[in-house]
Amino acid sequence: MNIWHDVPFGEDAPEVINVVIEIPRGSRNKYEIDKDTGLVKLDRVLSSAVYYPGDYGLIPQTYCEDGDPLDVILLLNFPTFPGCLVEARPIGVFGMIDGGENDDKILAVPANDPYFANIKDLADVPPHFIKEVTQFFASYKALENKTVQVGEWQGAEAAKQRVQDSIQLYNENFRKAE
Question: What does the entry list as the binding residues for substrate (predicted)?
Fold first, then answer.
């Protein structure tokens, strides 16, 4: 099974999306889906003295301008593990350019966790967490001599639109023969 291509994006997308975790919160290991096998592999260990501020993963059957699935940062209380499937609610989107390409990140919360039941939009998230995520992405590749440009945050509606756009782009690129 290929996690990217065989797992659905979620029956109620973009309101509730499936997120496959690649990297648990607190890790410096950069795991990612191997596009050929569909397995989670260790890509590298971050060179900078930073760690992922939330679980990090992808929305299956999505595609973005950088050639990868749409990325997600999942705000939760306890880290999960690589390969874990989480139903999540998009609440914001963080604009970013990595290596000269758009590389937006969806911010989401677990859909079935009562702790996050009242977090529906970016304005409901503690402001310091937003600063942590922004700072992480501004600096996580600094010691690799790679440039990342952090952009603006937008709320839930923009996040849901970004999810829809990435599903459509996936369909245009991978469902042509069907």
Answer: 30, 44, 56, 140
140 is annotated as contributing to ligand binding? yes
| 103 annotated to bind ligand | yes
pTM of the entire structure? 0.95
pLDDT by position in tens, the chain (length 178): 899 999 999 999 999 999 999 999 999 999 999 998 989 999 999 999 999 999 999 999 999 999 999 999 999 999 999 999 999 999 999 999 988 889 999 999 999 999 999 999 999 999 999 999 999 999 999 888 888 899 999 999 999 999 999 999 999 999 865 5
Q: Any binding-site annotation on 30?
A: yes
Flag whether 71 is marked binding: yes
For β-strands 40-45 and 101-102, DSSP reports them as unpaired
Q: Are 26 and 51 in contact (CB under 8 A)?
A: yes
Q: Is 44 annotated as a binding residue?
A: yes
Domain boundaries, the chain: 3-174
Pairing mode, strands 40-45 and 105-110: unpaired
Assign domain 3-174 to a CATH class: alpha beta
Other C-beta atoms within 10 Å of 135: how many? 13
